[in-house]
Amino acid sequence: MRFFDEMHASRADVRDHYKVYDRWLGRQPQDLMNSRRAEAEMIFRRVGITFAVYGDKDETGDGTERLIPFDLIPRIIPAHEWREMEKGLRQRVTALNRFLEDIYHDQAILKAGVIPAEPVLNNAQCRKEMMGLNVPGGIYSIIAGIDIVRACNPDGSGTYYVLEDNLRVPSGVSYMLENRKMSMRLFPELFAEHRVAPVAHYPDLLLDTLRTMAPAGVNEPTAVVLTPGMYNSAYFEHAFLAQQMGIELVEGQDLFVKDDFVYMRTTRGPQRVDVIYRRVDDDFMDPEVFRKDSTLGVAGLLRAYRAGNVTLANAFGTGIADDKSIYPYVPRMIEFYLGEKPILQNVPTYVCREKDDLQYTLDHLDELVVKEVHGAGGYGMLVGPAATQAEVETFRQVLLANPGNYIAQPTLSLSTCPTFVESGIAPRHIDLRPFVLSGKEVRMVPGGLTRVALKEGSLVVNSSQGGGTKDTWVLES
């Protein structure tokens, strides 16, 4: 399989936007790069940038905490490519928010037969409690993370595709920010030679977006970050973002609802909360409505939400729009709501609940990637070309038992980027997660989080599956 190399057009030809970096890299001794990597690991460990890997077990039987490896070699994106990608991201996220508003109100797209009603209305992520509820500005997903990959075309050029939409509680932005700080600390001379677009203002953009989405009539809104607690795999990020925005990090027990308003317990008495950036899944947010046994949420929160007295980022029920069974229909959403052709393409997708698509998938299991529609983190999937025959046959039975729970896609030839590994510099597969903020306007910082599959030949970049991260440089010119 042929892969698009982000840095090299051919073995001897470096792409224009990498040439300055390539000359610099060629002058760096191996022992210097090794020492820089060790320094980065020491600093990340000291700061506490860890991630729980649930597939690994420690002596207690729990998931182990480990550093997310940081790769020293950045992923560089030229200005013209970013401009086009940014337009595509704005278009896509706008359409997804229109879709959510429509589904919870008029359902025009279903009535028009553009999207089948069954996978939407019978979706576990469709929250009947949200029907008819108006959210500020009609924005359901205020913070979105859109996963983008680049595949190689037959002529050797590369095409960007959207692999996945993350509209519930997308994570990873703290690693984007910390990676940039680390790059600037280790290699300040590189930033003097490159015009790299900044990302450090993301917390300011996030806070401004949250505040602009506060309930009507609130002039000085109070925003908080709601975390499940310190044992959550992304707790570092929750604490980091709260600290960077200068707002409180709270748990469910720190909040209460009275007269359909949300309050925070403080040493000075109750303080009204207007905006909650929640990093807790729907099911655990309000024990009055969802899971009765949840201790992570706030009893009565939905009542306050329905009364228009608090904004949730993101809204309940956004999961319909990022469910993998709905993903194949996003291009249709863009045309239906915006009257435009999609700028960013979907990966071709087979919907296994449809008879012909199921049969094709069964006939080509060893060639395809098959994913659970509600799955995340690289779990519950089959990567056909990397699976044994026994694994393929076992998965075949699982698929036949519940075909509606799966989609299938071609095994994409994900682009590669030079990566500093134990054996030296070698190509490794990557993706990109830009973070899109939707409020009064749609905004984002240039780039996002580049994730890298550190195992040779692996196409799974998720941190929970042993992946690492890179700094992402978008050049300003």
TrEMBL record:
Organism superkingdom: Bacteria
Residues annotated as signal peptide: none
Gene3D superfamilies (alphabetical): 3.30.1490.270, 3.40.50.11290
InterPro entries hit by this protein: ATP-dep_Glu-Cys_Ligase-2, CP_ATPgrasp_2, UCP005522
Sequence ranges assigned to domain Circularly permuted ATP-grasp type in this UniProt record: 74-453
A Pfam family this chain is assigned to: CP_ATPgrasp_2
Name of this protein: Circularly permuted ATP-grasp type 2 domain-containing protein
Protein species of origin: Aquabacterium olei
Taxonomic lineage from the root: Bacteria, Pseudomonadati, Pseudomonadota, Betaproteobacteria, Burkholderiales
